[in-house]
Structure formats: structure tokens, C-alpha cells
Design brief:
- It is globular and about 85 Å long.
- Helix 5 packs parallel to helix 6.
- It is built from 27 helices and 22 strands.
- By secondary structure, the protein is an alpha/beta fold.
């Protein structure tokens, strides 16, 4: 009621300003023919709403972040605007996963399909992701001194077992099943055949997508395009000769390359900055008096746990799901999952709330870069699952580990005395190895968790357990392969997931079209982890991080996929 009164007063005060606002809007209307989209290095799916104080504190991170959702809205407006001839994207080296890059590439292709001209400028060159995105455009420009790197994709894992052996620490893994290799880096000194098989399949899938994108642009077969990996580095004119770019251009030369007038006065009129164009299109003088129906977007990001960062914390996610279930204005729920999994108990509690929401309103899950193991578990009963083809998912399995440090304790002079009331009371203590009987207990617990996981997925997908079990076994799949096997319902971006959710909401068509997504909870925009900031991704430090995660979680079972290295 207070909101209604305050907005009514505000709108009444704005009525006398309406003629001035209309004149000012007409005078400030964008007059250019081309929109220039200057993307920031960090590209995310959605910039989550923040309170004003956090916006001030996180101003630096926000300035370095672009939103794919904003690019989609910009494309919508540009397609319907007959005055706009084309869009030019200034693409820096991207700090983004492959799924987000697929989404950006799709928007460029969409603009082309709708008759808009497209161009991409690489002022600092680029690598595989930048080329994958840029190849969708009609024209690619590269700075004369910039370098395009096309070395081929790779993934590396470092094994810390020899280091643990030196200090007298042993990690004993318990996993279901053979592809569940989350503890491998601590328990082996080399890659297992199962890990090699699934990681190689992921690399091959990404490589196929990259080669197909480049081949469509260059006009060669993927096999012929693969020979570019042998050259690897293309500088300036070399990139043009290899047909990876069309011309050389500095950023201030972009207007002339687009065929616009060279005078400074006309240049300003014919180029519109994307931020200004989007702000003009979305500006409103009056505010709605009542809260509008909406689609609740609930983010599950990072490792799922009982504590830690807000986006992966069980209590925050459960609270958001309960709010969406109770709120009558929330007509549907989009579960946005970008998580490698985590605690089995936390994942199960989140899944339970998803099922309760589904009893009252439709739920669609959208998978980000990684939605595997516990990340898949929480969304298994959604009405539909949507993911980009290069995302990672699956890993239907469980893993646990037991740390034994008796040698280390002896070396540093620590003796352990134990008093116990049962034969297994100290089985999780690191001072002694497990007995055969205790290993039977651990394996029995994992079997129960694994069987329940497979049965849950089978029930959520509406298929027999016998069909799901061969697809489980801890195997990580590319989303394109998961879609072929029926673990995912549709390939596409968040806009595809939202469209599918809107279609399932039983409301009049006019209201359905007006439904907009809204993030239910506000989370702090997390900076990249220390490993990413220091360029240590894929290094031995990740193995230490995995060990620390297992130690922090204790002996409990993890639905986790931490063993999959980054593909770059």
C-alpha cells in the first residue's frame, strides 16, 4: 500500500513535466545508423541487481562487466528500429566461459538473419573464444600490431600425490563410479583412462564447434581449417592472409571502415554508443503503481554447501525458492544453475524445495558453464532443462575421500591416544588407516547415495533407471551430447529457457508477453577467485584447492565434479 501511495504521488508530480520530458526526449533521440557495442573483458549472463551501497562498493567490478542479457535487449531494439543499419562490437580479450560466448555469437548471427550488418573489431587481438564469437560477423577488423592466437584447445591437470607422499599424507578415494574422478589429483600420480576419455571428449567437442565456426567464415572444410593450428600465431596482415580477419583498423578508424562520413561532426551523428541507445529505449517518466507479475530467477552458483559464498549457500537458495513459491506475483521460476556440485545433503535439500515449487508453478532450469553432479541433482525434477551446447553437465555420481596422515604426525613428533566407545568411533581420524570392515561401511554408504541419485534422475526425466544408469557412472558430458541422450531437453541460452517457461504459464497471451525475469535475491558480485586473478587456473594450486575442499567438507559424500580442468 505504501508503495502504491508513493508512486502515485511521484507520477502526479511528473505530469507537469511531461511536455518538457517529451521535447527533451525528441531532441536527444539517437540519430546514428550504426550502434557501437564496447564490451567489457568480463562477460556474464546477467548482472544481478545490487543495493545502492553495494553498487558503490563494487563500482570497479561493475565497470569491468558486460551483460549478455543487455546485449539481447539491445538486439531486440535494433532489429525493430529501421533506422539502424548495423552493429559493431569492440571485443577485448574475454574473461568468459564457452557457454556465454555461444550466447554472444548467437546474437550476432541473429542480427545478420534479421538483415542488420555486423562487424567485430579486435583491438587487442584474441584467442579461441574471441575468434569463435567474431567469426559470426560479416566483417572482422584487427589492430595492426595485435596478435590472433589459434594454437588449438587444451586442458591440463596437475597431480599432487607425489607431493603428499613426501610430506607423509595419503588420500584414499571412495567414488561411484569409474568416471567420478574428483579425488584423482590427490590419489594418483597420473591421469586415469576414464578421466582421459571424458576430458578428451570435451576437448574434441569444443574443437569441433570452433572449427565449424571458422570454416563457415573462411569457406573451407574443418579438416582444412585445422591446419591453422600448425601456424598458431597470426599478426596483423598474416591474419588477413589466413582469412581470419578482413582488414586492419585502430579503434578510432572504425567509422571509416564502416563506410561512414569522415567529418567529425557527422561521425558523431552516425555512430551511437550502445549504452546511450539502450538507456534511451528503456527510459520511462512514469512508474507502474503496482508490482507486476514476473518470472523469479534463482541463481545457484559456485560450490553447493551449508556455508561459504552466498550464491552457493544452501540456506540462501532455499529461502529464495520458498519466497518464489509463496509470492503470487511469481508466475514461474527459472532455476539458473552454474555449479559443479558440492555437499550431498545441501543438494538434496535444495532439490526438495524445487519439487515443492513445481507443485504450484512451472519450473525451468537453465544450465550455465557447468551444471554437473550436485548442480544437475538440484534441477533433475524441473519441467524442462535448457543449456548451451558447449556447457558441461551430467557427472551423476558420488565421491568421498579419507585423509590419512600418520606418517606426517610421526615426523613432527605428535602421538595420538584414542578412547572410544565403539570399534569405528575414530574411523575418520587421520591418525590411522581404515580397516577392511570400515571400507565396507564407506562403500555401502556410497552405493546408497549413488542408487538414490540415479533413481532421482530417472524419475525426474521420466525414464527407467536402466536407461539412466549407463549415462551416469560419474560421466561428465558436453550439453550437446547430454541433449542427444535425453539428460537435457533443449539447447539454447537463457532467452530460450525464459521463452519455454513463459509458454508453460497459464495466463492470457498479452500478460505472458509482458512477463519479465527478476532475480529473487541480491548477491554480491563476486570477483574472480585468486587462482584466476593470478593466472594459476589449471595449475598445481587447483589440486591443493580440491584437497582443501574435501577437508573442509569432512568425510561426507560429495556430488562434485571438481576434477574437470578448464578448456582453453
Amino acid at each position: 500500500m505504501l508503495r502504491f501511495v508513493l508512486r502515485s504521488i511521484r507520477n502526479l508530480l511528473c505530469v507537469p513535466l511531461l511536455p518538457i520530458w517529451a521535447i527533451a526526449r525528441w531532441l536527444s533521440r539517437p540519430k546514428g545508423r550504426w550502434i557501437v557495442v564496447r564490451l567489457k573483458p568480463r562477460l556474464v549472463e546477467v548482472r544481478q541487481p545490487l543495493p545502492w551501497l553495494r553498487r558503490v562498493l563494487d563500482a570497479g567490478s561493475l565497470r569491468r562487466t558486460s551483460s549478455l542479457a543487455a546485449v539481447r535487449r539491445l538486439a531486440d531494439y535494433a532489429i525493430s528500429d529501421s533506422r539502424i543499419e548495423g552493429l559493431a562490437f569492440v571485443l577485448p580479450p574475454l574473461q568468459a566461459g564457452w557457454s556465454v560466448c555461444v550466447g554472444l555469437r548467437e546474437q550476432i548471427l541473429r542480427l545478420r538473419d534479421e538483415g542488420k550488418r555486423t562487424a567485430v573489431l579486435l583491438p587487442r587481438g584474441g584467442g579461441h573464444r574471441e575468434l569463435y564469437v567474431a567469426s559470426a560477423a560479416e566483417q572482422i577488423y584487427v589492430a595492426p600490431q595485435a596478435t590472433i592466437t589459434l594454437l588449438g584447445l587444451s586442458a591440463q591437470s596437475h597431480y599432487v600425490k607425489p607431493l603428499l607422499d613426501r610430506i607423509g599424507v595419503e588420500v584414499e578415494p571412495f567414488a561411484r563410479k569409474e568416471y567420478k574422478t574428483a579425488v584423482e589429483r590427490m590419489s594418483r600420480d597420473s591421469m586415469s583412462e576414464y578421466q582421459r576419455e571424458q576430458v578428451q571428449a570435451l576437448i574434441d567437442g569444443h574443437t569441433t564447434a570452433l572449427l565449424e565456426a571458422l570454416s563457415q567464415r573462411i569457406g573451407t572444410t574443418p579438416e582444412q581449417t585445422r591446419t591453422l593450428f600448425e601456424v598458431g600465431v597470426f599478426r596483423g596482415q598474416d591474419a588477413i592472409d589466413a582469412r581470419l580477419a578482413d582488414a586492419l583498423a585502430y579503434e578510432d578508424e572504425l567509422p571509416s571502415r564502416l563506410g561512414l562520413e569522415q567529418t567529425k561532426k557527422k561521425k558523431k551523428k552516425q555512430i551511437i554508443e550502445a549504452d546511450r541507445y539502450l538507456a534511451f529505449k528503456e527510459a520511462k517518466l512514469f512508474r507502474p503503481l503496482r508490482r507486476q507479475p514476473y518470472i523469479a530467477v534463482i541463481a545457484i552458483k559456485g560450490a553447493i554447501s551449508e556455508s561459504g559464498a552466498p550464491m552457493g549457500r544452501r540456506a540462501s537458495i532455499v529461502a529464495a525458492l520458498r519466497h518464489a513459491r509463496r509470492d503470487r506475483r511469481a508466475l514461474g521460476v527459472l532455476l539458473w544453475v552454474d555449479s559443479p556440485g558440492g555437499s550431498a545433503e545441501a543438494s538434496d535439500l535444495i532439490h526438495r524445495e524445487v519439487v515443492r515449487v513445481k507443485e504450484k508453478k512451472p519450473v525451468v532450469a537453465y544450465f550455465g558453464e557447468v551444471a554437473a553432479s550436485g548442480g544437475y541433482y538440484v534441477a533433475a525434477h524441473a519441467d524442462a532443462i535448457v543449456a548451451q551446447p558447449l556447457g558441461l553437465t551430467g557427472s551423476i555420481g558420488v565421491v568421498s575421500a579419507r585423509l590419512m596422515a600418520s606418517q606426517l604426525l610421526d615426523r613432527v613428533g605428535i602421538r595420538t591416544e584414542v578412547l572410544r566407545t565403539g570399534p569405528h568411533a575414530d574411523m575418520f581420524s587421520p591418525h590411522r588407516p581404515l580397516t577392511d570392515g570400515e571400507r565396507v561401511l564407506m562403500n555401502r554408504e556410497l552405493d546408497a547415495f549413488y542408487d538414490s541419485f540415479v533413481a532421482l534422475v530417472a524419475d525426474g526425466r521420466g525414464r527407467p533407471v536402466e536407461d539412466i544408469e549407463p549415462l551416469a557412472r560419474g560421466r561428465v558430458w558436453l550439453a550437446a551430447d547430454a541433449h542427444r541422450h535425453g539428460l537435457i531437453d533443449e539447447l539454447g541460452g537463457m532467452d530460450t529457457a525464459l521463452d519455454r517457461l513463459r509458454d508453460s504459464i497459464d495466463v492470457p497471451p498479452r500478460l505472458r508477453e509482458r512477463l519479465r525475469p527478476m532475480v529473487v535475491a541480491s548477491y554480491r558480485l563476486e570477483p574472480p577467485p585468486p587462482a584466476a586473478q593470478l593466472g594459476l587456473e589449471g595449475s598445481v594450486f587447483e589440486g591443493v584447492r580440491d584437497l582443501a575442499l574435501l577437508l573442509c567438507e569432512g568425510p561426507g559424500v560429495l556430488y562434485h565434479v571438481i576434477s574437470i580442468p578448464r578448456i582453453r
